[in-house]
Amino acid sequence: MIRLGNPFRLRRTGTLCMNARNHAYIHAYNPRRFYPRVDDKLQTKLLAQRLGLAGPRLIGVVRFNRQVRDVPALLKDETEFVIKPTKGSGGKGILVVVGRTQNGEYIKPSGETLDNTDLFRHVSNILSGLYSLGGQTDCAMVEQYIHFTDAFAGYSYQGVPDVRVIVFQGYPVLAMMRCSTADSDGKANLHQGAVGVGIDIVTGRSRGAVQYDRPVKRHPDTGREFDDLRVPEWDKHLLLATRCYEMTHLGYFGADIVLDRDAGPVLLELNARPGLAIQIANGIGLVPRLKRIEALDNEFPPPPEQRVAFAKNAFTSSTD
């Protein structure tokens, strides 16, 4: 397990630090003209649909304040849904609704209820840029609520766990599952208290877990042990993440994937500035794996299936 400490220890473990991530990888490999493809979740979704990548169904988009009052009509046939800012970050502004009361109020994963006035306020805040990067005006996107597989029962609390895969020059290099908790209000966001579970690239099995950057053995709300966690359809997760390289033309990004009980792995969103806690969850530094990919001739990268196969062969547990 990687321990936070002095720079010399971090360098020995191959830990990628924020400055190096920003300058040597994000700045060097992510052309800024392509950032909107991941920073704007609506643009990501439309690109993914064009390439045939699986994702949650798009229910609708609210672009202007005059449309806010039309939201109940948009949702009249929906009992479960997610409202999110298209330019948000860090899980801010995401509203998850898992049901309706008999009088039509909306039920959050925590059991708290909201009425139409609450919904109007939330959507208006999104449009004003309250949750967006740089406070820029935004749109509100309404998506299908994902029903996660029973294979993850007890690993997440009042929310859907997702898998984040770091993709570098089209190769999957490190992965983790983010499991929601009571602290995170049903959202798979580590900053808000979700648990990060390191996932072995080869097997899809747990390598360890952290909450608030501290190691944990069990889910804080359900008590289920993370050592037993295994992600079904693991190769499909890796292939879906890898195919996003051709969609984004970004060299370094994180792909967030959820496992729907009916549709299988689906793309939730992408991140051009993925966080570094994934290293702590895995007990593995990113630098050796990134250097391994940089040593390849990537002028004409092989197809996604071959890149997945290479990663699974190169990044075995014995190499870390």
Number of domains: 2
Radius of gyration: 19 Å
The low-pLDDT segments are 4-8
* Overall pLDDT level: 91
**Biggest sheet: strand arrangement:** 12-11-10-9-8-13-14
Helix content: 25-40%
| Overall 3D shape | globular
Structural class: alpha+beta
Q: Could you tell me the CATH topology label of the largest domain.
A: D-amino Acid Aminotransferase, Chain A, domain 1
What would you give as the CATH superfamily of the largest domain? ATP-grasp fold, B domain
Kindly report how far apart the N and C termini lie: 11 Å
| Overall number of strands | 14
Series of secondary-structure elements, N-terminal to C-terminal:
HHHHEHEEEEEHEEEEEEHEEHHH
Count of helical stretches: 10
CATH architectural type of the largest domain: 2-Layer Sandwich
* Main beta sheet: 7 strands, antiparallel
What does this structure look like?
- The protein has ten helices and 14 strands.
- It is α+β, with helices and mostly antiparallel strands.
- It starts with 6 loop residues before the first helix and ends in a 6-residue tail after the last helix.
- It folds into two domains: 7-54 and 148-319, ATP-grasp fold, B domain (D-amino Acid Aminotransferase, Chain A, domain 1), CATH 3.30.470; 58-144, ATP-grasp fold, A domain (Dna Ligase, domain 1).
- It is globular.
